[in-house]
């Protein structure tokens, strides 16, 4: 085992089962397809949001954030904030930034409670090291990475030409709306905010940040961390809603299983079987099959070329 952290997707099903496998109870993630405070409020209680965005590779943290203000005075014991010390861990770090600040509202389970207690008096840099070196958190994180025989994420180094994406968290803590970004030197305060006000306060902050990007930049993703919606469905006796939530969970489990599986060997066996069957039909049949496939590929390439010329 290399001990590295692999890339995971910004996906509600991935994040839901990731926190569940860490021992967290009654929490799920919902994708927000629009910046709509009312829709976010309907998911209440909302513990925080995880925002994925394209990170300029040449940009470095400065002494003053572009939005909000650094809160360098908040005590480490009052707010969990960890510096990001390793590549590819920012998705899990962002969701932990919400979870570990909500132990009064969320059942974290014994392992995360122990981790928070162990790091309670640590400064942010040491918390980041402790997180990066947690075998439990790393193993659960990596269990949701896509299986690929071609890419070793632990060896990949981003360049200026790469599209690099970064996860950060927004959550209300002790009456303040905080932005928790492990690449920044401190938590960023966006002003007073109660739990009830969170949907109305966080949406303008997100909108202002997105507006700094070119109008054609649409590669953003926003996930809300909420209480398990099946609980709400049971509370109000909505059986249809409960059925839909259970169906969604089943789909998530199936998708996560597919993510873990490497299909290259399976595809290779299919191709070998097709080739063997063609060879059994005789050399002329095989040659005809290859010729027909080549002709179709050439025709498709010529068609694409004509479309590009007319465009």
From TrEMBL:
Keyword hit for rRNA-binding: no
The family database entries (InterPro entries) matched by this protein are listed as: Papain-like_cys_pep_sf, Peptidase_C12_UCH, Peptidase_C12_UCH_sf, Ubiquitinyl_hydrolase_UCH37, UCH_C
Q: What is its EC number?
A: 3.4.19.12
Q: Cross-referenced Gene3D superfamilies, in alphabetical order?
A: 1.20.58.860, Peptidase C12, ubiquitin carboxyl-terminal hydrolase (3.40.532.10)
User: GO cellular component terms?
Assistant: cytoplasm
What Gene Ontology terms describe what this protein does at the molecular function level?
A: cysteine-type deubiquitinase activity
Protein family according to the UniProt entry: Belongs to the peptidase C12 family.
What is the official name of this protein in its record? Answer: Ubiquitin carboxyl-terminal hydrolase
Q: Which organism is it from?
A: Trichoglossum hirsutum
């Amino acid at each position: 085992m290399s001990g590295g952290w692999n890339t995971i997707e910004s996906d509600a099903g991935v994040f839901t089962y990731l926190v569940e496998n860490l021992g967290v109870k009654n929490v799920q993630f919902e994708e927000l397809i629009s910046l709509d405070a009312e829709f976010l409020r309907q998911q209440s209680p909302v513990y925080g949001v995880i925002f994925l965005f394209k990170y300029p590779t040449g940009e470095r943290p400065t002494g003053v954030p572009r939005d909000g203000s650094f809160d360098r005075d908040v005590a480490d014991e009052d707010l969990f904030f960890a510096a990001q010390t390793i590549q590819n861990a920012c998705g899990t770090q962002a969701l932990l930034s919400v979870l570990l600040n909500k132990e009064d509202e969320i059942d974290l389970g014994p392992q995360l409670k122990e981790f928070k207690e162990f790091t309670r008096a640590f400064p942010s840099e040491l918390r980041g090291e402790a997180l990066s070196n947690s075998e439990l958190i790393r193993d659960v994180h990596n269990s949701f990475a896509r299986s690929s025989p071609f890419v070793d994420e632990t060896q990949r180094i981003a360049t200026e030409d790469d599209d690099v994406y970064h996860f950060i968290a927004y959550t209300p803590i002790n009456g303040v709306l905080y932005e928790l970004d492990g690449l920044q030197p401190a938590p960023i305060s966006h002003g007073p905010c109660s739990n009830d006000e969170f949907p109305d306060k966080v949406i303008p902050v997100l909108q202002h940040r997105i507006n700094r990007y070119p109008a054609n930049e649409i590669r953003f993703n926003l996930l809300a961390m909420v209480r398990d919606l099946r609980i709400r469905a049971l509370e109000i006796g909505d059986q249809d809603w409960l059925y839909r939530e259970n169906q969604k969970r089943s789909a998530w489990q199936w998708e996560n299983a597919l993510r873990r599986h490497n299909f290259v060997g399976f595809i290779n066996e299919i191709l070998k079987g097709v080739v063997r069957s063609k060879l059994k039909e005789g050399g002329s049949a095989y040659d005809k099959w290859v010729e027909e496939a080549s002709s179709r590929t050439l025709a498709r390439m010529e068609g694409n070329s004509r479309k590009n010329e007319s465009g």
